[in-house]
Structure formats: C-alpha cells, structure tokens
Design brief:
mainly alpha
Length: about 100
C-alpha cells in the first residue's frame, strides 16, 4: 500500500444466507482421534489445493487464533502435523505425476 493511502474497506453488508460467509461451529462433544485425523488431513489438503506451502500451513497450526488447527497441534504435536503435511504433499505430487504421464 502506498504512503498516505487509506486501506480499502469492504462495504458488503452481512447476509445470513451468503454461501461464502465463514461460519464457525462447535462440537457437542470432543471429536475422537479418527475424526481429528480426518479433519486435520482435510484442512492440510484444502490449503495445499489453494497453493499454500507446507511452512504456511504449519504456521496456521501454530497460530492460536485458529482454534481447530491449533488444538490439533496441541493434542497431536509438531511431528504429527509435519508428517501430515509431508504425507499430503507426497500423495498430491504422486497424483500430479500420474495425471501428467497419462496425458
């Protein structure tokens, strides 16, 4: 942003039925290990699909403002999250090679 310029502010009004509006939810009970693993894998895969690097994703898990990812890190540990990021990245790379080879 240039010096002296005001930041752009989104003037869109809130619409309760907006499909693009982020909505946080809570669980009635804590997810078991299998559900936690599925959520963690889905989160990592989703961020990789939009182009985030492994290091960016790890920072997301370390940020306490993102409760779900931060709780996963706290419960499962750094090595679990790093392993998950590496695993998802490896699988995506293998799939990309297969698609490229089939063309």
């Amino acid at each position: 942003m240039g010096q002296g310029r005001e930041p752009r502010v989104n003037k869109k009004t809130f619409e309760p039925e907006d499909p693009m509006e982020l909505v946080g939810v809570s669980f009635e009970q804590e997810p078991d290990e299998e559900a936690l693993d599925e959520m963690a894998c889905s989160i990592v895969e989703e961020y990789m699909r939009i182009g985030w690097t492994g290091e960016n994703i790890l920072r997301l898990f370390h940020n306490p403002a993102f409760k779900l990812t931060h709780n996963i890190l706290q419960q499962r540990g750094e090595s679990y999250v790093r392993g998950l990021v590496d695993s998802v990245d490896r699988v995506r790379g293998e799939l990309a090679r297969k698609v490229k080879d089939s063309l």
